[in-house]
Design goal:
The structure holds 2 protein chains of 2 kinds. By secondary structure, chain A is an alpha/beta fold. Chain A is built from 8 helices and 10 strands. In chain A, the strands form 2 sheets. Chain A has a 6-stranded mixed sheet with strand order 6-7-8-3-9-10, with helices on both faces. In chain A, strand 7, helix 6 and strand 8 form a beta-alpha-beta unit. Chain B is an all-alpha fold. Chain B has a single domain, classed as ABC transporter involved in vitamin B12 uptake, BtuC (Orthogonal Bundle), CATH 1.10.3470. Chain B is built from 14 helices and 2 strands; from the N terminus they run ααααααβαααααβααα. Classes of the chains: A alpha/beta, B mainly alpha.
Chain lengths: ~250, ~300
């Protein structure tokens, strides 16, 4: 990549009470690029996600946005730089309705700071029906909604507010084949709009299909990086398990 | 609010809060509808009401405030002690003391991650000990005219009007401002709220501070009515406040409850106590009744949770 990457992690480390969860990770995502991050449970994927989204601060290393070093004191900071995260848990407030969750933390206001409920409802309804045309009755607690509807809310709110980098943590883990295909279409669409995507997954087949580049994380380190075009599923699996490539048949 | 929603709210409140049946039953008690008794009722629910509003906000945020009773007493004492500097200084002083107690509770709960019941129990005992020591367990007397006038008011006590004004303000804050949304979100799922970019610690601190300020102001109004700031009052206040908030739809799990509900719950508890007074039920038995009711509410809360999880 010649130009500065959209978002770049340089030498990121993170310790938890003596445990080295990340040991100097370099990772960059460019505009309109889909980068997949794969690895076993405990490889450090979710710590990396939470560093990118501002939940944790790194112990060492640097986060750069458009080439400039930044620090995130909270998830709100990361959002301000256009980094949006769809968490595996979705991070919805179960007692609030869809519009309230959609605008949580960035509510639309009328004069004197009062909530503009009407405009929030109509904007959320429009954004949600874009993703899921069958999504009706959005004004009830999301606790009462289906898994697909809940995910639609989490996705819709992540892409609505001028997103530059979208971090998707296991977006297809809880989905059926039809919904998985929809997520694939969505990724393609966002990519064509120049949005960078960091896709965290353990499903190698999915990742081979969706990503431009696959970064393999093991024990808190990047152990390899491959392009699906000139690689195979087996090679990626081998990297995940053993931390190195197959001794033979590797094109690189 | 449209008429349908208003009706639904009314129905829901009367299902959860059997206020109407109680009022009907109360009608058979001699003297319930007398002007004197209604005034007594209004006086008793206004002080407790201001406290219940704060308690409800804390409970929506997923917390609890056991310190409201001692902060009530502290507010009265501080207000009386500051009376020589004027009514405004007295109110500001009481509010500041209440805010300090609330911020201490909030700090224990958020930064030190102590269970809200234990944290506010500690603050409750500390505040009570402090005012008992400072006053040498004796009430402080405040006989300024303006102060005593604040404790009066005709036909409705000023305290009652102040309570209603605070209730309306708190309701607007919770339902029409972003802050209120955030309080509900924090109460439902702190982690999710933090991931959505909300400042969870700050919001919870604000809730506890609000509860402290309201409890202290309630203490000032009570002291104005009695003409003294007593260091020993408010022992049963956390009990009453929690019962009223729970009847009104709040939950120990957080994320639920409303001010109109809490006010209805408070009217229910207030009427119940009032009727027991009229019938001559001794006050210790009254506490047993309120305690048993609280017990039943907590059990119901737990059963509802289990049903919902299924």
């Amino acid at each position: 990549m010649a130009a500065a990457a959209l978002v770049e992690l340089v030498g990121i480390t993170r310790h938890f009470a003596g445990v080295h969860a990340l040991k100097g990770v370099d990772l960059a995502v460019g505009a309109g690029e889909v980068v997949a991050l794969v690895g076993h449970n405990g490889a450090g994927k979710s710590v990396l996600v939470q560093i990118l989204s501002g939940v944790f601060a790194p112990t060492g290393g640097e986060i750069r946005v458009a080439g400039r070093p930044v620090t995130f004191a909270s998830p709100a900071d990361a959002r301000r730089y256009g980094i949006e995260t769809i968490y595996q848990t979705l991070a919805l407030a179960d007692n609030l309705d869809a519009p309230a969750n959609f605008f949580l933390g960035r509510e639309l206001r009328r004069a004197f700071g009062f909530l503009d409920k009407k405009r929030m409802s109509s904007e959320a309804a429009r954004a949600l029906s874009d993703l899921n045309p069958n999504f009706i009755d959005i004004e009830r607690p999301v606790r009462q909604m289906s898994g697909g509807q809940r995910q639609a809310i989490a996705i819709a709110r992540a892409i609505h507010f001028d997103v530059k980098l979208l971090v998707m943590d296991e977006p297809t883990a809880a989905l059926g084949p039809h919904e998985t295909a929809q997520v694939g279409e969505l990724i393609a669409r966002l990519r064509s709009q120049g949005i960078g995507i960091l896709l965290i997954s353990h499903d190698v087949r999915d990742v081979m299909r969706l990503a431009d580049r696959i970064v393999v994380l093991k024990n808190g380190e990047v152990v390899g990086e491959v392009r699906p075009a000139d690689s195979s599923e087996d090679e990626v699996v081998d990297l995940i398990i053993r931390g190195r490539r197959l001794p033979s048949g590797s094109a690189a | 609010m449209n008429a349908g929603l208003f009706r639904d709210t009314l129905i829901r409140l009367s299902l959860r809060t059997p206020l109407l049946p109680l009022l009907v039953a109360a009608s058979f008690v001699d003297g319930f509808w007398s002007t004197g008794n209604l005034r007594t009722l209004a006086e008793s629910v206004s002080v407790d009401g201001i406290i219940v509003i704060g308690m409800t906000v804390v409970m929506i945020a997923g917390g609890f405030d056991l310190a409201v009773g001692s902060v009530l007493a502290m507010g009265g004492v501080v207000a009386v002690l500051l009376l020589p500097h004027g009514l405004v200084a007295s109110a500001l002083g009481a509010a500041a003391a209440g805010a300090a107690a609330g911020l201490l509770s909030g700090t224990l709960v958020t930064r030190l991650r102590i269970n809200p019941f234990i944290a506010t129990l500690a603050v409750m005992v500390m505040v009570r000990g402090g005012i008992l020591a400072y006053t040498d367990t004796r009430p402080v007397v405040g006989l300024e005219d303006a102060f005593l006038a604040l404790g009066g008011g005709r036909p409705l006590p000023y305290a009652f009007l102040i309570m209603l004004a605070i209730a309306v303000a708190a309701h607007v804050l919770l339902s029409e401002r972003p802050w209120g949304r955030h309080v509900y979100a924090v109460g439902a799922d702190e982690r999710a709220a933090a991931m959505a970019g909300l400042r969870v610690t700050r919001i919870k601190m604000q809730c506890y501070a609000l509860s402290g300020v309201l409890a202290a102001l309630a203490g000032m109004l009570l002291a104005a009515r009695l003409g003294t700031g007593s260091p020993i009052i408010g022992e049963a206040t956390p009990l009453t406040a929690a019962a009223a908030a729970l009847i009104g739809g709040a939950s120990l799990r957080g994320g639920e409850g409303s001010i109109p509900g809490a006010v209805a719950g408070l009217l229910f508890v207030g009427c119940l106590v009032n009727v027991m007074n009229l019938l001559g039920v001794p006050s210790y038995y009254q506490r047993m009744v309120i305690g048993a009711m609280l017990f039943a509410l907590v059990v119901t809360d737990g059963v509802l949770l289990r049903l919902r999880r299924r």
